[in-house]
Fold this sequence. Notes:
Elements: E1 2-4, H1 6-15, H2 20-27, H3 31-39, H4 46-55, E2 67-69
Antiparallel strand pairs: 1-2
Helix pairs in contact: 2-3
Amino acid sequence: MVVINLKRLKAERIANGITEAEMGKKLNKSSSIIYKYENGSRNLSIENFCKMIDVMGFKAKDVNIFFADNCD
């Protein structure tokens, strides 16, 4: 199974200088929802994941950095 590396997602948001509030505004979500997505306490849909990486400026060819194999 392949899973989204939420720590990497958060790290890239921070590295791009985007706050939880700014990301939330772009996705029409609250900053607390962004926090919950990044910490795994709320499921992140593929649609919202795609919106988040788009906000950060990632291209389709670069999204593999956000995925990790889950061998559990």
